[in-house]
Design a protein that fits this description.
Number of helices: 21
CATH class of the largest domain: Alpha Beta
Distance between the termini: 46 Å
CATH superfamily of the largest domain: Periplasmic binding protein-like II
């Protein structure tokens, strides 16, 4: 997979002269930006004064720009051609060629199935229970192409829709499948030993003696296996290197079941791995597309390896802007991504993981919707699932309702919302967020103040200004409000409305996202002061469209509104200070300038949260419908575990756990990984634990609504919240 995605933008669309077309490349690294600037200078020198350079966070941000009309063209590799076409509607207009000869270099390679000339295998069904040699699990011609296409044909049955290794093990008698025991291919650690029985090393490393194109054919040559999966040129290459190897000793097994000569690969291949392509929006006028082609075809002819700039070589990295070694750019005749990829290659993306489950993620803001679309594209390109879609809702409560009704499948919820989802909508937790400095799927709720604000403590918060993550959210509301009631700083009440009013009267001004939303304010009598620091009711949404929502937002509120206290989690301050966040409001912040407010009235440095906190609580979790079968819940866990291995914090392609458009979106951006919730604990009562559950039940005794259920009602908050939590 190439780390660089390229895009270019036309400032004035329409039937313009070529000189009027502006072509901005969107790059995803500093080395690529440097090369782009060098290309701009070189193109300027020969009269192609259209090129500019733009940097984005990742290739999917570039796809978004093209789709939104903020960018026009981007360069993508094989799997991302599918993602760009399916999820963003882009179409190919140019492709790279690795040869200057007219009919060469039009593709990288084709996938073939190789058998011996005297093999008893004479049909596709004849492969069953034979011994197979593969280049490696997850590799294109040796694994994803044959497995996907044979699954699509029904030849290989799908025993485990998320684990093709088990499907292959069930079909062949023995195999050499290098990498079959690596974590990404063996999440449960139970792949059958026979998938590596004929490898050079039974432990099956990805660099086994029989790995790669030549290795797979050598496995066949040495009579370890009876069939090998390789690329169209492998036999030719081996025959040139070793005169003892004769092409006529081998045959190809074709998709239609016939047996063909090795040289007949063009009509007997299973899929074509295309060269990388440049794609654009189908909404552009054809004249504009033609001019774009002309700019880059002209540049490629003039800067192909000679002079001070070369389009197809890289310095300071590899495959910058274009694939190193490319010889020319060619116009493509295909009008969409499916025809460009071809049926065989499409199968590797649509039938590699083929589960009969829906994967509909519920999102509650524009930022979440955008990230979900890009996550769907990344999951498809990574062959994790091509079936993820995004469902928009107006709130987390609406997401719960959609999942209960069968209109969505997944959403990430705060602990307080998990209670509501479980009790009133029968949803269950399947995956939980984990953080670098905790040993389990939990976090600590804390109160934070500016160090310079020496007059504030937890015991004198009355009349002060406060910032909260959101109404009824764990660390921003349930825990601090419960603690204040337990300490009798705030009076208890028999209704939700009463306690919310008491909080409004206790603090002089606050930002409590959602406090004036009808779902949490059914009588319309919640104090307006609860949203005053947010900027008023219109800026008080309980989702990431509100810049003061969630942990990051509450901390930002503390900074920008000069508030007295923010109720957040233990890692919030460290996550957004000391240069860790490149946003104007946070760039000059130092963690040493903030302190924790302890329940006993003392203050401690922000790294002393184990000694100075309000409670230890369960982390946010991904939930689904309790009606889902165990196998379907396990599927959701599997795709998320696979995804974080590929797109975790170290990924330069797409980051599941990162600030998106300046906000927490879908996951907390401090998350280090997701862990599966054990099947025995996939119930909100068991997951939340008796202490936290007891506190939430106390909050839920007398709902303050006009008759509906499903929102945690704050009522008589008993001593669970302080006494029990602070003894953990």
């Amino acid at each position: 997979m190439h780390a660089i995605t390229v895009a270019l933008v036309i400032l004035n669309a329409g039937y313009l002269a070529t000189a009027d077309v502006t072509a901005r490349f969107c790059v995803t690294s500093d080395p690529a930006m440097a090369k782009c600037n060098a290309m701009k200078t070189a193109f300027d020198g020969v009269g192609l004064r259209q090129v500019g350079c733009v940097k984005a966070e990742d290739r999917y941000q570039c796809m978004k720009k093209v789709k939104a009309g903020e960018a026009e063209v981007m360069r993508v590799d094989d799997t991302d051609i599918y993602a760009a076409g399916k999820y963003f509607g882009l179409v190919p207009i140019l492709k790279e060629s690795n040869s200057l000869n007219a009919n060469d270099g039009l593709f990288l390679y084709k996938a073939v199935i190789v058998i011996r000339k005297n093999s008893i295998i004479t049909s596709l069904q004849g492969l069953r229970q034979k011994k197979s040699c593969h280049t490696g699990v997850g590799r294109t011609v040796g694994w994803t192409v044959p497995v996907s296409n044979m699954q699509a044909k029904g030849i290989i049955s799908i025993r485990d829709c998320d684990n093709t290794v088990k499907n292959v093990a069930n079909f062949f008698s023995q195999s050499c499948a290098p990498g079959a025991f690596e974590e990404k291919n063996n999440l449960e650690g139970d792949n059958p030993e026979k998938v590596c029985a004929i490898c050079g090393n039974p432990k099956c490393p990805s660099n086994d003696t029989f790995s790669g194109y030549a290795g797979a054919v050598q496995c066949l040559l040495q009579n370890k296996g009876e069939v090998a999966f390789a690329k169209h040129s492998t036999i030719d290459e081996l025959a040139r290197e070793n005169t003892a190897i004769r092409k006529d000793d081998f045959r190809l097994l074709c998709p239609d079941g016939r047996v063909a000569l090795v040289d007949e690969w063009d009509t007997c291949s299973w899929a074509t791995r295309p060269t990388d392509t440049i794609m654009t929006s189908p909404t552009l006028p054809q004249a504009t597309i033609d001019k774009l082609r002309n700019i880059f075809e002209s540049g490629a002819r003039q800067f192909n390896g000679s002079g001070s700039f070369s389009m197809f070589s890289s310095s300071g990295g590899s495959d910058l802007l274009f694939t190193d070694g490319t010889k020319r750019l060619l116009g493509v005749s295909e009008t969409n991504y499916t025809s460009y990829l071809g049926k065989g290659y499409l199968n590797t993306l649509e039938n590699y993981v083929k589960c009969n489950y829906t994967n509909r993620w519920c999102v509650v803001s524009d930022a979440e919707a955008h990230k979900c679309l890009q996550m769907s594209a990344a999951f498809a390109a990574g062959r994790i699932t091509s079936q993820m879609t995004c469902v928009r809702a107006g709130s987390h409560k609406e997401c719960m309702e959609k999942i209960e009704a069968g209109d969505a499948d997944l959403v990430t919820l705060d602990g307080g919302d998990v209670y509501t989802a479980g009790k009133y909508h029968k949803l269950v937790p399947v995956m939980a967020e984990n953080f670098p400095d905790t040993s389990d799927a939990s976090y600590w709720a804390v109160a934070v103040a500016k160090k310079s604000n020496t007059g504030v403590s937890f015991t004198n918060l009355k009349g002060k200004t406060s910032c909260h993550t959101g109404i009824m959210k764990t660390s921003g509301w349930n825990i601090p409000v419960g603690t204040l009631i337990e300490k009798r700083s705030i009076s208890s009440s028999s209704t939700q409305c009463g306690i919310i009013n008491a909080v409004g009267n206790f603090f002089s001004k606050s930002c409590v996202p959602g406090a004036l939303d009808p779902k949490y304010n059914p009588t319309g009598k919640n104090p307006s002061s609860l949203c005053e620091l947010c900027g008023g009711k219109q800026f008080c949404q309980r989702d990431s469209s509100n810049k003061y929502y969630s942990y990051k937002g509450a901390f930002r509120c503390l900074v920008e509104k000069n508030a007295d206290v923010a109720f957040v989690k233990h890692s919030t301050v460290q996550s957004y200070t000391d240069g860790k966040l490149n946003e104007d409001w946070a760039q000059s912040l130092n963690s040493a300038d903030f302190e924790l407010l302890c329940p006993d009235g003392s203050r401690k440095p922000v790294d002393k949260w184990r000694e100075c906190n309000l409670a230890k609580v369960p982390s946010h979790t991904v939930v689904t419908s309790g009606k889902k079968a165990t196998s379907e819940r396990r599927h959701y866990s599997t795709i998320l575990r696979k995804a974080q291995l590929k797109f975790g914090r170290d990924s330069d392609v797409f980051k599941m756990f990162a600030t998106y458009e300046g906000k927490d979106a879908i996951f907390d951006d401090a998350t280090s990984f997701l862990s599966p919730v054990p099947e025995a604990k996939q119930d909100y009562t068991k997951w939340l634990g008796q202490e936290y559950l007891g506190a939430l039940k106390a909050l839920d005794k007398k709902p303050c609504t006009s008759g509906g259920q499903g929102v945690i009602a704050t009522a008589n908050i008993i001593m669970f919240l302080f006494v029990l939590f602070n003894l953990i």
